[in-house]
From TrEMBL:
Family indicated by similarity: Belongs to the adenylate kinase family.
Organism: Geofilum rubicundum JCM 15548
PANTHER family recorded: NUCLEOTIDE KINASE (PTHR23359)
Pathway: Purine metabolism; AMP biosynthesis via salvage pathway; AMP from ADP: step 1/1
Protein name: Adenylate kinase
Length: 191
């Protein structure tokens, strides 16, 4: 069993790298952003609530996100491990994840932080916004997402440093170069 948190600011490449990790290591992917966007598309009650936060670049409240994650873990069959993408995003979420995994006699094996500077992530997200149709990929909301990341999410780094599972990775370069850096970290964890 290998549980990985892929972490970093908006646009740091969490989703892009998760796809490659799944392919190479066969892990299950849980992306809270993707789950929320699916709920929004289906116009569910949860989707309506989530949209109001996402469109403003704010975090969806912890109790909603933690409940959603718990439901997802409850229906998880036998898997080789999970890559958590976009979760946890607050200290409260990190504590809740630890508790939920402990019930399964598991823990997070490694937290991989993709380090990318603000100019690069802004450029990436503005470019994606031209074609993605994502309501939060516009300059005003991107700047808000970065501020929210710095205030509410970056403190999660210290949580995993204290746990001894933190690994910082240079998240700039080509997608393949970054993936090789990530793979080297995961391979060490699998030994
Ligand atoms: P979420 O979907 O998690 O968005 P995010 O964290 O802002 O991250 P992104 O999906 O924008 O970027 P990414 O890091 O995955 O990068 P990607 O690979 O796509 O969350 C959206 C919203 O949902 C949040 O703002 C919040 O409101 C809510 N939410 C979600 N989870 C929550 C939680 N746990 N608690 C509370 N609220 C929550 O890459 C970005 C772009 O860059 C792509 O176009 C890609 O092709 C390109 N790219 C990737 N790598 C490279 C590279 N090396 N070089 C050049 N371009 C690259």
């Amino acid at each position: 069993m290998l549980n990985v948190v892929i972490f970093g600011p908006p646009g740091s490449g969490k989703g892009t790298q998760s796809e490659k990790i799944i392919e190479r290591f066969g892990l299950e992917h849980i992306s809270t952003g993707e789950i929320l966007r699916t709920e929004i598309k289906s116009n569910s009650d949860l989707g309506k609530i989530a949209a109001s936060f996402i469109d403003r670049g704010e975090l969806v409240p912890d109790h909603i996100i933690v409940g959603m994650l718990e439901n997802k873990l409850n229906v998880l069959g036998a898997v080789k491990g999970v890559i958590f993408d976009g979760f946890p995003r607050t200290i409260e979420q990190a504590c809740a994840l630890k508790m939920l995994l402990h019930k399964r006699e598991e823990d997070i094996d490694v937290m991989i932080n993709l380090e990318v500077d603000n100019a690069e992530i802004t450029e990436r997200l503005l470019k994606r916004g031209e074609t993605s149709g994502r309501s939060d990929d516009n300059l005003e909301t991107i700047e808000k997402r970065i501020r929210v990341y710095e205030c509410q999410t970056a403190p999660v780094i210290d949580f995993y440093k204290k746990e001894g599972t933190y690994r910082g990775i240079d998240g700039q370069g080509t997608v393949d170069e970054i993936f090789e850096r990530i793979s080297a970290v995961i391979e060490v964890c699998m030994v």
